[in-house]
C-alpha cells in the first residue's frame, strides 16, 4: 500500500497516456473491455478503462488482487468454470465477466495493481504467445509511466525546494539593507549585488553584474593594487578585513569597514569571493572609530534582549552581558564565568548534541556555529533559545575566542502558537461563514486561452451556495454549458494579477453572485482565490425597491398634476416617534379644524373620526402596513367635510425608516378624487354595455374563425396535392421506364415458353425482378417522405450493420473517395428498422460523394451520446442516451441558407435531372419516426457532417440471419391453417400457392366482410394474412380488430404497399400484429408466416 500511495496516482483525473494504453490492450487482444486497476486497502480503482463504465470495485470481489500474486500474469479462459471466480458478482451479474487476463503493475519492485483485458464471452484458448507478450509489454509501459510520474514529481519537489532555498538566501541578503554584500567569481567579476549594495554604493544590480569588483575602490587604491592584496590575503587566511575609503557611483567617497571571504561549493572547492561592506563614514570622521565602535557595541548589548557571551577558548572563561539576567533571571553572583557552567544549564536531553555541534566547529576549522536548544532559567524552567557563535582564530588557525548571542525564542514560539490558533480560527471562520471561498486553478489551452478551472480548495459555504461538493473537480464536469464570461474573467486574473470584483448571473446555478477574485501563489501556477456571495435575494430586494421608487415617482407626478389642476386638499406630516400629527391650513379648513391647532399638532383620532365608518378599518390596516414595511403609501376612502357631506379622497405619502428599521416620519398629501370616482363609475357602466355587445361579437368571430380554419385545412390539402403532383412529375419518367422493362420481359418470357425455348428464360426473369425491385425502392422513398411507411423496428447492432455495408459504400462512392469506418467499442443497441437505416446511410454516403467531385475522404463513425436537458433542447429531442451515426466528408460544405432548407421535400442543389430532393427529407422522416433526430454541421469549403441520433435500446441486438429460399423454407405442421384476404387476385393467388407449397391449409377471401365471416366461424385459423386497403367499407385493420373480439390471440400479418395512420396507429402496431411491405420476395413471406405461427404455438 505504501508503494501505491507514493505514486500519487490514486483518485487522480484521467490521463490520455493511460487511456491510450488501455485501448491498445483491448484492440491487441480483441476484447471490448480493458483497464488499468490499482488495488487500495478496500477497493480496486481504475486509473483508465474502456468498456467497463465504472472505476471503483470493492476489493473483495476484484480480480486484480489475485493477478498481483501471479508474476507472469493471470489468464482465466472462462470465469464460470474457474472455482475462484464462478460465484463472483462480477461474473454472475454486471458486467458479466467470462474471459479475464491480467499482468501485475509494479512500482519500487512491488505489485500495486494490474493491466487487464476482459470479455463477456469465454476465450477457451486463453492468450496466444503474441498476445501474452503484447500484454506484458503494455503492462511494462504502464509501470514505466508510473515510475516516470513519480520521478518527475520527485524532481519537481527537489527543484521547488532548491528554488525556495535560493529565494530565501536572496531574501536574507536583500534584507541586510545596511550592508553591501557583493559576490564575485575567481576573475573578480561581480556575480551578486544585494539591495544594501544598491543603497550604499548607488549602482543598480543590472549595472554591476559582470563588471570588475575593483570599481568600488578609489583610483589611488586601484593604482596601489589594494584590491589584489586584499584578495591574496583572503586566499591565504580564509578572510581579509579592511577599513578604507571606497567609491560611490556619483563619484563621492565613503569610509567603509569591510571583509572579504572565500566562496566554496559543496565539495569545498574555491569558486569566488564574498565582500561585505558597511558605511562607517561618520564614525571615521569623528576620529575615534575604535571608541565609537566599542560604545556602539556596549549600547547594542544593552539594547538587545540577546544574551551575548564571549568565550575564551584558551582559559574556558565566559563573560555574559546584562541580558542574561534580564532574559533568564541569572544575577551576576549566581553565574560561574566558565564554559562548564554554561554547558550545565543546557537541558540534559540537548546537552550532548550541543556539545558535539559546537566542538565540531571549533575543532574542525569552522567559523560559524548555530544551534537551537533549551536553556535553564534561574527559576528552574527552560527557555527555547537560538544560539549563534563566531570562532576567532590565530594566524595559524588555532581557535582563540568564540563570541555569540543567545536569543530567547519563547516569544517567537508563543507567536507561532498564536499564529496556528489564528490560522485555525481563520479556517474555522471560512468554514462557518455564509460567504463562499475557494481556491481554483485555471486551465489554458495551446493558445493560452482559459478553457476550464479546477477547485483546489473550497469551504463549506461554497458547497452550500453551489449545492455540490466541487473540491478536486473541473467546473466543466458539472456545468458543461457554463458561460464563457467566467473563464475569461478568471483567466484574466490568473494571467495578469489584476483583481476582479463584479456581480454576474450564473445560468448553470440560476443565481446572482457577488464575486471577488485575486491571484495567489506562484503566478506560473495560474491559481486564484475567489470569495463570492449569493446575492439573488438582495437583487430581488433591489428590484422591488426600484419598483417601489417607481411607484413613489408616479405618486409625485400625480401630486404635481393634482397641484396643477387644483385637486390637492392639503398636506400632513406625522412625526412617528413623538406621534405629533401636523397639517397645513388648507387641510384644516377642509375638515373644519383650527389652523393653529393643525400647526401645533392634533391627535390622529380627531382625523380618523371624520372617516366614513365603513372605511375606518381599511384605513387603519393600510396605515399599519406601510409603517411596518416603509416606502410609498396610497389609499382611497371617504371623509366628512365641514359641510357634513362625505367625499372620496386619496391619501398619498411615504414612511421613512432609520437604518435600524425604526419608523421616523410619515409625510403626505390628500387629493380630491370625488370627480374621478364619478368618471370611473361612468366608465364601468359603459364597459358593461360594451361587454354585452362583445358577447355577440365573439359568436360572430367564432363562426368566422371556423370558416378560416376550414379554409386553412383546404389550403394545406391543396399544398399537399401540389407536392404529390411535383413528386409524380419527378418520378413518372422513372416508373415508365421500369414498367416497360417489366412488361417487355414478361411478354418475351411468355413468347419463349410458348415456343418451347427455355434457354433464355432465366435472363428475362432476372430482368423483370430487377426492374420491380427498383420500382419498389422508389415507392419506399415516396412513403418515407410522406411518413406513411410503416417501420419494422428491431433491436439492431449499428456497428454490425455499418460493417456489413462498408463494401457497398466503397463500391458506390468509387476509387477517388477514401472511405474510413470507425465503430465505437461497446456501442449501445438501438430499436430501428435496419433496412430503412441502411437506405438512410447509403443515401448520406451518396450525398457526401457528390459533394466531393474531385475526390476526398468520407468517414462513417458511430458513438454513444448522452444529451442533457440543454443539449437535447437545442436539438429538439428528449434528454437521454442515444446512438449517433455520423457521415463526414471533406467536400464543398453548405451555406447557412442551404442548411436551413436541406430537409425540405424536393429541395436539391444538384443539377436538373440528378436528384428529386427527397433523400434528406426521407432520412429526416425516418429518424423522427424512430424517435430520433438528424443534424447538419457544415461550413462552406470545410466539409459536412450529417449526424443521425437514434434512441438507445436497453436490451440485446438481434443477430442478422439470411432469409431461406422457398425450397428450404420450413414446412407446415399438420392442421395449420392460414386465412388470406386481398382484393388483388394476382397477389392472393401467389400467396395461396406459397402456402400450399409449404403444406399449409389456406382459405382465401376478396374483401374485409368475407374475411370477417370466416374469422367469426368455427374454422381453425392460425394466422390472418391480409392487405390493409380492402374494398367494401372495412379495411384490413378494422377486420383484424373485429376478429380479435372473439379470437384475442389471433396473429396478424399485414401485407401492404403503404400504411394509413388510422390503421397502424401512427406507425406502431398492437402486440401480435406485424407488417410485410409490398413488394416482397416469396421466401420472405414464407419465413415470416412460419415465424408468426411458430410463436403462436410455442
From TrEMBL:
Keywords: ATP-binding, Kinase, Nucleotide-binding, Phosphoprotein, Transferase, Two-component regulatory system
All residue ranges annotated as the Response regulatory domain in the record: 977-1093
Protein name, UniProt field: histidine kinase
EC number in record: 2.7.13.3
Residue ranges of every copy of the PAC domain listed in the record: 240-292, 369-421, 633-685
InterPro entries according to UniProt: CheY-like_superfamily, GAF, GAF-like_dom_sf, HATPase_C_sf, HATPase_dom, His_kinase_dom, HisK_dim/P_dom, HisK_dim/P_sf
Domain of life the protein comes from: Bacteria
GO BP term, pick one: regulation of DNA-templated transcription
Catalysed conversion reaction: ATP + protein L-histidine = ADP + protein N-phospho-L-histidine
Organism: Roseomonas indoligenes
Gene3D superfamilies, alphabetized: 1.10.287.130, 2.10.70.100, 3.30.450.40, 3.40.50.2300, Histidine kinase-like ATPase, C-terminal domain, PAS domain
Amino acid at each position: 500500500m505504501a508503494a501505491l500511495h507514493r505514486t500519487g496516482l490514486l483518485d487522480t483525473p484521467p490521463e490520455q497516456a493511460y487511456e491510450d494504453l488501455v485501448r491498445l490492450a483491448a484492440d491487441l487482444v480483441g476484447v471490448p473491455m480493458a483497464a488499468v486497476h490499482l488495488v487500495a486497502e478496500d477497493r480496486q480503482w481504475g486509473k483508465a478503462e474502456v468498456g467497463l463504465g465504472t472505476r471503483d470495485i470493492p476489493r473483495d470481489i476484484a480480480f486484480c488482487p489475485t493477478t498481483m500474486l501471479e508474476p507472469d500474469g493471470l489468464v482465466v479462459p472462462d470465469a464460470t468454470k474457474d472455482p475462484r471466480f464462478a460465484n463472483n458478482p462480477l461474473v454472475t451479474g454486471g458486467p458479466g465477466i467470462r474471459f479475464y487476463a491480467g499482468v501485475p503493475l509494479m512500482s519500487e519492485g512491488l505489485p500495486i495493481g494490474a493491466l487487464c483485458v476482459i470479455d463477456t464471452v469465454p476465450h477457451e484458448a486463453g492468450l496466444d504467445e503474441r498476445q501474452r507478450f503484447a500484454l506484458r509489454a503494455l503492462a511494462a509501459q504502464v509501470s514505466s509511466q508510473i515510475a516516470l510520474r513519480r520521478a518527475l514529481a520527485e524532481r519537481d519537489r527537489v527543484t521547488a525546494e532548491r528554488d525556495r532555498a535560493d529565494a530565501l538566501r536572496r531574501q536574507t541578503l536583500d534584507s541586510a539593507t545596511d550592508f553591501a554584500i557583493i559576490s564575485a567569481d575567481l576573475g573578480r567579476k561581480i556575480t551578486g549585488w544585494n539591495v544594501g549594495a544598491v543603497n550604499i554604493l548607488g549602482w543598480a544590480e543590472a549595472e554591476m553584474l559582470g563588471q570588475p569588483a575593483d570599481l568600488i575602490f578609489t583610483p589611488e587604491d586601484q593604482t596601489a593594487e589594494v584590491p589584489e592584496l586584499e584578495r591574496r590575503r583572503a586566499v591565504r587566511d580564509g578572510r581579509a578585513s579592511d577599513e578604507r575609503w571606497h567609491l560611490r557611483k556619483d563619484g563621492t567617497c565613503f569610509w567603509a569597514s569591510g571583509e572579504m571571504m572565500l566562496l566554496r561549493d559543496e565539495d569545498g572547492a574555491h569558486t569566488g569571493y564574498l565582500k561585505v561592506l558597511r558605511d562607517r563614514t561618520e564614525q571615521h570622521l569623528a576620529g575615534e572609530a575604535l571608541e565609537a565602535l566599542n560604545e556602539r557595541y556596549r549600547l547594542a548589548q544593552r539594547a538587545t534582549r540577546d544574551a551575548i557571551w564571549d568565550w575564551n577558548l584558551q582559559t574556558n572563561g565566559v563573560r555574559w552581558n546584562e541580558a542574561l539576567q534580564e532574559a533568564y533571571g541569572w544575577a551576576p553572583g549566581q553565574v560561574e564565568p566558565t564554559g562548564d557552567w554554561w554547558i550545565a544549564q543546557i537541558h540534559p536531553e540537548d546537552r550532548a548534541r550541543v556539545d558535539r555541534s559546537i566542538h565540531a566547529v571549533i575543532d574542525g576549522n569552522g567559523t560559524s556555529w548555530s544551534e537551537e536548544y533549551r536553556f535553564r532559567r534561574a527559576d528552574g524552567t527552560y527557555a527555547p533559545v537560538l544560539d549563534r557563535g563566531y570562532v576567532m582564530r590565530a594566524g595559524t588557525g588555532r581557535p582563540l575566542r568564540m563570541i555569540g548571542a543567545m536569543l530567547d525564542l519563547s516569544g517567537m514560539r508563543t507567536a507561532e502558537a498564536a499564529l496556528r490558533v489564528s490560522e485555525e480560527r481563520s479556517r474555522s471562520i471560512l468554514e462557518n461563514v455564509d460567504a463562499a471561498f475557494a481556491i481554483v486553478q485555471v486551465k489554458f489551452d495551446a493558445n493560452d486561452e482559459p478553457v476550464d478551472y479546477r477547485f483546489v480548495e473550497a469551504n463549506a459555504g461554497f458547497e452550500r451556495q453551489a449545492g455540490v461538493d466541487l473540491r478536486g473537480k473541473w467546473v466543466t464536469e458539472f456545468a458543461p454549458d457554463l458561460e464563457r464570461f467566467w473563464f475569461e474573467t478568471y483567466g484574466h486574473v490568473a494571467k495578469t494579477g489584476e483583481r476582479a470584483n463584479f456581480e454576474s448571473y450564473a445560468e448553470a446555478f440560476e443565481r446572482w453572485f457577488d464575486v471577488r477574485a485575486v491571484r495567489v501563489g506562484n503566478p506560473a501556477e495560474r491559481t486564484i482565490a475567489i470569495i463570492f456571495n449569493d446575492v439573488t435575494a438582495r437583487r430581488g430586494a433591489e428590484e422591488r425597491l426600484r419598483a417601489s421608487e417607481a411607484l413613489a415617482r408616479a405618486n409625485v407626478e400625480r401630486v404635481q398634476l393634482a397641484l396643477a389642476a387644483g385637486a390637492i386638499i392639503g398636506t400632513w406630516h406625522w412625526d412617528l416617534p413623538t406621534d405629533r400629527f401636523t397639517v397645513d391650513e388648507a387641510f384644516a379648513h377642509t375638515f373644519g379644524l383650527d389652523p393653529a391647532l393643525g400647526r401645533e399638532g392634533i391627535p390622529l383620532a380627531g382625523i380618523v373620526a371624520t372617516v366614513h365608518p365603513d372605511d375606518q378599518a381599511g384605513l387603519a390596516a393600510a396605515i399599519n402596513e406601510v409603517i411596518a414595511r416603509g416606502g410609498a403609501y396610497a389609499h382611497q376612502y371617504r371623509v366628512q367635510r365641514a359641510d357634513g357631506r362625505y367625499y372620496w379622497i386619496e391619501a398619498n405619502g411615504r414612511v421613512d425608516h432609520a437604518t435600524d428599521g425604526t419608523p421616523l416620519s410619515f409625510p403626505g398629501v390628500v387629493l380630491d378624487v370625488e370627480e374621478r370616482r364619478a368618471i370611473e363609475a361612468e366608465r364601468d357602466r359603459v364597459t358593461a354595455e360594451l361587454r354585452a355587445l362583445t358577447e355577440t361579437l365573439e359568436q360572430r368571430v367564432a363562426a368566422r374563425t371556423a370558416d378560416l380554419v376550414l379554409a386553412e385545412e383546404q389550403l394545406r390539402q391543396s399544398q399537399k396535392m401540389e407536392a404529390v403532383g411535383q413528386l409524380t412529375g419527378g418520378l413518372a419518367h422513372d416508373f415508365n421506364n421500369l414498367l416497360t422493362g417489366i412488361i417487355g420481359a414478361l411478354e418475351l418470357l411468355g413468347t419463349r415458353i410458348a415456343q418451347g425455348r427455355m434457354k433464355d428464360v432465366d435472363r428475362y426473369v432476372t430482368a423483370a425482378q430487377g426492374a420491380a425491385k427498383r420500382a419498389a425502392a422508389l415507392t419506399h422513398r415516396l412513403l418515407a417522405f410522406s411518413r406513411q411507411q410503416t417501420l419494422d423496428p428491431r433491436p439492431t447492432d449499428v456497428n454490425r450493420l455499418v460493417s456489413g455495408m462498408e463494401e457497398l459504400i466503397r463500391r458506390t462512392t468509387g476509387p477517388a473517395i477514401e472511405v474510413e469506418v470507425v465503430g465505437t467499442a461497446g456501442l449501445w443497441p438501438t430499436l430501428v428498422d435496419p433496412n430503412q437505416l441502411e437506405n438512410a446511410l447509403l443515401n448520406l454516403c451518396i450525398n457526401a460523394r457528390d459533394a466531393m467531385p474531385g475526390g476526398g475522404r468520407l468517414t462513417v463513425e458511430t458513438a454513444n451520446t448522452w444529451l442533457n436537458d440543454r443539449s437535447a433542447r437545442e436539438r429538439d429531442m428528449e434528454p437521454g442516451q442515444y446512438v449517433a451515426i455520423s457521415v463526414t466528408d471533406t467536400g464543398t460544405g453548405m451555406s447557412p441558407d442551404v442548411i436551413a432548407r436541406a430537409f425540405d421535400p424536393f429541395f436539391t442543389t444538384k443539377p436538373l435531372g440528378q436528384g428529386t430532393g427527397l433523400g434528406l427529407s426521407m432520412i429526416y422522416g425516418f429518424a423522427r419516426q424512430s424517435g430520433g433526430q438528424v443534424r447538419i454541421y457544415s461550413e462552406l469549403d470545410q466539409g459536412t457532417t450529417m449526424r443521425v441520433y437514434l434512441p438507445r435500446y436497453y436490451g440485446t441486438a438481434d443477430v442478422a440471419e439470411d432469409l431461406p429460399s422457398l425450397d428450404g423454407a420450413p414446412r407446415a405442421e399438420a392442421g395449420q391453417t392460414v386465412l388470406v384476404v386481398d382484393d388483388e387476385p394476382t397477389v392472393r393467388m401467389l400467396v395461396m400457392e406459397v402456402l400450399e407449397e409449404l403444406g399449409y391449409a389456406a382459405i382465401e377471401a376478396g374483401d374485409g366482410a368475407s374475411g370477417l365471416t370466416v374469422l367469426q366461424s368455427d374454422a381453425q385459423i392460425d394466422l390472418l394474412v391480409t392487405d390493409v386497403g380492402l374494398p367494401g367499407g372495412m379495411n384490413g385493420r378494422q377486420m383484424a380488430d373485429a376478429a380479435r373480439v372473439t379470437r384475442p390471440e389471433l396473429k396478424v400479418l399485414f401485407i401492404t404497399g403503404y400504411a394509413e395512420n388510422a390503421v397502424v396507429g401512427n406507425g406502431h402496431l398492437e402486440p401480435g400484429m406485424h407488417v410485410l411491405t409490398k413488394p416482397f420476395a416469396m421466401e420472405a413471406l414464407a419465413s415470416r408466416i412460419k415465424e408468426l405461427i411458430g410463436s403462436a404455438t410455442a
